[in-house]
# Entry
Amino acid sequence: MADRFDIAIVGAGMAGASLAAELAPHARVLVLEGEDTPGYHTTGRSAAFWHETIGGPGVFPLTAASGPWLAEHGFLSPRGGLHIGRTAQHSLAEAFVAEFRAVGARIELIGRDRLDGIVPGLRPDWTVGAWEPECADIDVAAMHQHYLAEARRAGTVVRVRARVEAIEREGAGWRLGWRGQEHGSEARADKVVDAAGAWADPVAQMAGARSIGVAPMRRSMVQLRIDPPPPPNLPLTLSFDEDFYFRPQGDRLWLSPHDETPDVPRDAAPEELDIALAIDRMEQAVDWKVLALERRWAGLRSFSPDRLPVIGFDTGVPGLFWFAGQGGFGIQTAPAAARLGAQLLLGQERDAMTEGISAEVYDPTRFSA
# Structure
C-alpha cells in the first residue's frame, strides 16, 4: 500500500525545500523532485543577493520580512547595491528612489562624485545612481541545504528522480504517481503543493486546475576575466534600463544582460546573442577590458501575469495549494514566503515574521475573474 502523507510538495528547489522545513514540525510531508539533485534548475543557477528593490514594491514586504532571518542564520555577506543611469535619467532615478523609500527601503540618490568612488572606470555620461547599502550576497547552496536538512530532521521524506506523472483525486485526498524512483512510484496525501517553478502550470493542470499563466523566462549569466580585476568591494551594479547587471565573484566578474526571454520548462542554456549583448552593454558603461569569457549558464525565472508570487489554495480545486511564480526574487523572499505558506496551509496564526504581510496580495483568487 502506498505511503500516506498530510502534504505532498512537488518540487525541491528553494521554494519546496523552505516550505517543507516550515511544515515538517506540524505535518507528515513528502517532497517529490524529478531531477537527480534538489535545486538543479533555478535554485542551483542563481547569482542570488538580498536586494530590497528587486521585484518591485509588491514584493518588498516578503523581502523585508526575510532579511533578519537570513542575517541571523549567517547566509548574508555585505555587498551593497547600485542602480546606475545616464544624465538624462535623473528624473527616472528620483522617481525610483521615492517609490521605494515610500515602502520602507533604505535607498538614496547619489551623483557622479559618489559614483567614482564606487564603480571605477565608469564612463563620463553615467552620472546618476541609487545606492542601497543593505544589499547583500546570499549563500544559496548553504541556505538550500539548511532547509532540506531541517525538513528531513523533522521527518520529511524527500524523493529525487521522482518525476510526477499523475495527480488524481482519491476520496477527500490525492494520489500522486511518478516514475524513475526505486522506492515505489506512488503516494497518498491530503493536500498537494505546487512548488514546481517553471513547471507550475503543467503540474496544476495535472491536478485538474486551470492554468494561471506562470511563465518561464530565461536569464543568462557569464563569468568574465577582466582588466583591471573587479575590486572586492564592487557592489551589485544594475542599469536603470534593466538591460545589464554585474557583480564580482572572487577576482572574476559575473555579468547578465538582465534578459527575460520567454521560454518553456526545460534545462535552460544561454544564447550566444544574449552573451554578446551583455558584454556590449557593460562596455558602454565601463572602460574595463574583457580578457576571457570563462563560463556561461542560464536559468528559468517564472513569473505570474502580475509578476507577484502565487501563494494560496486554488480557487477551483480543493486541497491544491499554489507556491509558485517567485520570479527572480524567490531566494531572498523564501524565509517569509515559506512561513506564510505554512501558516495558510495549516490554518495557523501569523507570527512576528509574517504579521505585516498581506496574504491577499499573493492569493490565487486574483486570477479567477
